[in-house]
């Protein structure tokens, strides 16, 4: 009896360990995260660094300014998901490197606290006309007579 209880508790312990480890969050890294590999890369220095040195150190930017190439944006984020739940962003970093000609004129850093939520409208654009319901689609032609077909030569209806 004691042995059966010991086996049952061992099975329960293994099941509990498996259940808790199955719900461990997984992290996904997007963008450039220099300190993820325990490398601390110094920020670009104003007046010292150029476009070439910034590209060598950080790689190509995530995006640039739209109309003029005076600002480069480096965006990185960490996303965490647990089981089947919707993933959530736990960390986001944005580094903006501004240039005056080819030299760095300013460096700004932003975190997740400065982010803004953008609400996208995923509805469809309405079209003119009437939408038919399921019953109207199924029973729409009931009671309608087939079109009358005329002979090519005589102009009389076909007699079949």
UniProtKB/TrEMBL annotation:
GO terms for cellular component: outer membrane. InterPro entries: BamE-like, BamE_dom. The keyword RNA-binding does not apply. Residues 1-24 form the signal peptide. Pfam families: BamE. Keywords: Membrane, Signal. Residues 45-105 form the Outer membrane protein assembly factor BamE domain. This is Outer membrane protein assembly factor BamE domain-containing protein.
